[in-house]
Amino acid sequence: MVSTLRQAQDGAGSSTRVLVLAGGLSHERDVSIRSGRRVAEALRDAGFEVDERDVDAGLLPWLADHTPDCVVPLLHGETGEDGALREILELVGLPYVGAGPAASRVAFDKPVAKVVAQGAGLHTPPSVTLPHETFRELGAAMVMHLLVAALGLPLIVKPAKGGSALGCSVVRSADDLPSAMVDAFAYGDTALVEQCIEGVEVAVPVIDTGEGPRALPVVEVKPDGGVYDYTARYTAGSTEFVVPAKIDDDLAAECARVAETIHAALGLRDLSRSDLMIDAEGRVWFLEVNVAPGLTETSTVPLSVQAAGLDLGTLVGDLVRAAVARRTP
């Protein structure tokens, strides 16, 4: 199949054909479909030939018969961000937009990404990583008591892997910790319990179209309910986005530096989005990074792209061309 795919790529005409992959079987399927639809439309407006497909048993046979010049994977959650799909795309010899398998796998694992961030000199909240088995076998009540004693309140509890704030809870009272742990374990077998840093929440996309990674304008996130959860992220009108964020130039530059640093430290490429918090003292904290950020009508990346004076279709098109250019002959 590899030779067939490469022969088809070598014979591709001047019109670039792009496959947008969206959907999948993760809890973030609906968000992925919305992202895929928007990007596909933007690429068509930019002059690309675009196919849209889900990830299923028919994908590989379809690729053998309709080889695209490049793939844009927009699957959110484990099926799209744990590196496995990207490894398959490399097996069939197709260039794709986004981080490679190993970098995706590390970035998707929040506790591991935090270790990389610390090694790069970034601030990241104190935390404890708890597999469900350990939590249960050592006695949930005692473990939760130790968590509060060590990390204090408030806490934020989230699945160690996943996105869109699914299974994520802010805990302001010790009485609320048990239900928060249950919610996190509902979306994965390991929970990350962090000290909750309060302040100004921001998102910073980083792009690299071939001239090195650069941060786009900082987006300030102001959810109506105070917590940027799944509903606040994807329900129109539930969150106010301020872009560029209402922070001074030095803080904006520091946010950009943090996002660019983690992008480089993790070995990411093309596009990422870092979620950060600015505390009352002006310290910038790294929370997590996303290698397949949402690109829906309520997502932060398109807002930042627009604030930078860029067109989404043109930008993704530039990323497609960069991906094709780096393909190994």
UniProtKB/TrEMBL annotation:
Residue ranges annotated for the ATP-grasp domain, each copy included: 114-321
Binding positions (Mg(2+) 1): D275, E288
InterPro entries xrefs: ATP-grasp, ATP_grasp_subdomain_1, D_ala_D_ala, Dala_Dala_lig_C, Dala_Dala_lig_N, PreATP-grasp_dom_sf
Catalytic residues as annotated in Swiss-Prot or TrEMBL: E28, S164, S299
Enzyme class, first EC level, given as a word: ligase
Cofactor(s) demanded: Mg(2+); Mn(2+)
Known EC number: 6.3.2.4
SUPFAM superfamilies on file: Glutathione synthetase ATP-binding domain-like, PreATP-grasp domain
Location within or outside the cell: Cytoplasm
Pfam families the UniProt entry points to: Dala_Dala_lig_C, Dala_Dala_lig_N
GO molecular function: ATP binding; D-alanine-D-alanine ligase activity; metal ion binding
Keyword Metal-binding: yes
Keywords: ATP-binding, Cell shape, Cell wall biogenesis/degradation, Cytoplasm, Ligase, Magnesium, Manganese, Metal-binding, Nucleotide-binding, Peptidoglycan synthesis
One of the GO biological process terms: peptidoglycan biosynthetic process
GO cellular component: cytoplasm
Binding-site residues for Mg(2+) 2, renumbered to this chain: E288, N290
Pathway noted in the entry: Cell wall biogenesis; peptidoglycan biosynthesis
Top-level taxon of origin: Bacteria
NCBIfam families: D_ala_D_alaTIGR, PRK01372.1
Function according to Swiss-Prot or TrEMBL: Cell wall formation.
Similarity comment: Belongs to the D-alanine--D-alanine ligase family.
Protein name: D-alanine--D-alanine ligase
Protein encoded by which gene: ddl
